[in-house]
Amino acid sequence: MVQVCNKGMDFVLESIEAITQVNAHLKQIEDLAAVYYREVSENQIPILSGGGSGHEPAHFGYVGKGMLTAAISGPIFVPPCANDILKVIRFLNRGKGVFVIIKNFEADLREFSQAIYQARSEGIPVKYVISHDDISVETSNFKLRHRGVAGTVLLHKIIGQAAYEGASLEELERLGLEVATAMATLGFATKPATILGDNHPMFQLEPGNISFGIGIHGEPGYRTVPFQSSEILANELINKLKMKLKWQDRESFILVINNLGATSKMEELIFTNDVLEFLALDELEIVFTKTGRLVTSLDMAGLSITLCRLQDKKWLQYLQAPTDAFGW
Amino acid sequence: MVQVCNKGMDFVLESIEAITQVNAHLKQIEDLAAVYYREVSENQIPILSGGGSGHEPAHFGYVGKGMLTAAISGPIFVPPCANDILKVIRFLNRGKGVFVIIKNFEADLREFSQAIYQARSEGIPVKYVISHDDISVETSNFKLRHRGVAGTVLLHKIIGQAAYEGASLEELERLGLEVATAMATLGFATKPATILGDNHPMFQLEPGNISFGIGIHGEPGYRTVPFQSSEILANELINKLKMKLKWQDRESFILVINNLGATSKMEELIFTNDVLEFLALDELEIVFTKTGRLVTSLDMAGLSITLCRLQDKKWLQYLQAPTDAFGW
């Protein structure tokens, strides 16, 4: 796929106009579909993330105090091109380098890697982490898919706050690897996304059916079943997460319930209650819960569960620290 | 309509379970579909609001520091009954009385008025304000409909913070009246709401069409037209709001863009940008902007604009004050 830098960007640039007018602490990086935090300290390592658009409030909504220093977007569901990412890295670098959080999608990896390679060759120290929390199953070969989905926001917050508190580039890399490997995400959709200006759904899903293990780019899931109840959905997802994370009683976990966009807040809350009940049965200690529309897929309806084992108590402090990022 | 206190409340009680588990500062008032702020000072006048459920994060999402002291919900789109409201008023009263914020719907007024009447007869001083910001037009008689819709959140925040800073019951009543009469709201839907567990939309709206002046309880709007562009929608709504608010160049206003639920965040941002451009053409000074899913109607897709004339600079301080209410 040839990446064209400037096509299909009208929606994104209009969004940035609104975001920077409404949030005084955010500013556009000139000529780029990128937003940065105006009040960042010169002493901290800047944190960059980004990807395709259509996942709002990700990623611009996570730019702010103790989270991302900047985010860059491509067109809907298409990552920004390497050259633009490189410009943002140069813009952010104050001599100490830049840390980058990348979601595990082929196109994202290609563009971000190329930008990082180029930046390093210019003498800018860059380290990164790849979020790969998705544990859906490929229907063709039954292998796990490790796309980067809702768990990515935990990396934004934990790494962002660690950088704010003065962590070095090497410390951020170590922390990123620890957090990225401690978590897993699985979700379902009740309605596929439709691309703006197009009335066709991105995959087929009859009303009343749900699809397990959907992606955030309109990819269909691994299994479609009729909707029965929120409890049964919670049970299916938690069983699969338990197989992956292999928890013991009384372990401490961080919980994220992500609303993929068009699910009502009431349904999100009812599902959250079911999830908390199942986790209580396993006597897990849920030390931090975040719910809401965190990483969406336009107007897709659906929910996902992310569980992250609390391997270090510092992570909890990082999560609890205040931020002015509007998506958190 | 006979009000049955305990029917159709399962969804609401499960939501409350989730809310109180996830938010340590919120607690259920025993045996009631009501939530209160645990850390409220004994010295302030407690603020109560509520209504039917299905509008999440309203109203529980506005309980917190410098906002509501408590909120009570009825079943979906049905207000709580007077007797339950009365119990919450008694629970909140510490001798200085209680201030209540009510949305202007017939059933809400009936239940809240009865509760207030009874509380007063028991010697509890109660004052209230009615939010009536909606300016849609009745198709039958061309009269304005003054339902309480998204602008209600401005009352929650401004009155809540004034109470937190020590305003008396009389001062809150005066402030409430000033704010309630300074604002107007108008919106449109692109997709009707569906009640949970029911696949039938609450009014007919063909895909690709939009309905102006919809309600938040599944009421249809005053005019249905094919969707053309976000700009044209913004223009129509702002013209109607200007006819009502009759602003002059360079006046200061507060802006709320409310997402009715299922509209994507990207569409909300694009619409926000269009609204800001039209207001800039009129040289209005927008001193404060709040966007997001503030008062929803289950899974209805649509957006509304609220404009509130800044009659007093104190209002801006009240709006800017920090809060831990999860819906703000």
UniProtKB/TrEMBL annotation, chains A, B:
Question: What domain of life does the UniProt record list for this protein's source?
Answer: Bacteria
TM helices/strands, residue ranges = none
Name the Pfam families on file: Dak1
SUPFAM superfamilies assigned: DAK1/DegV-like
* Annotated DhaK domain residues: 7-328
Q: Which PANTHER family match?
A: TRIOKINASE/FMN CYCLASE, TRIOKINASE_FMN CYCLASE
Q: What is this protein called?
A: DhaKLM operon coactivator DhaQ
Q: What is the lineage of its organism?
A: Bacteria, Bacillati, Bacillota, Bacilli, Lactobacillales
Gene it is expressed from: dhaQ
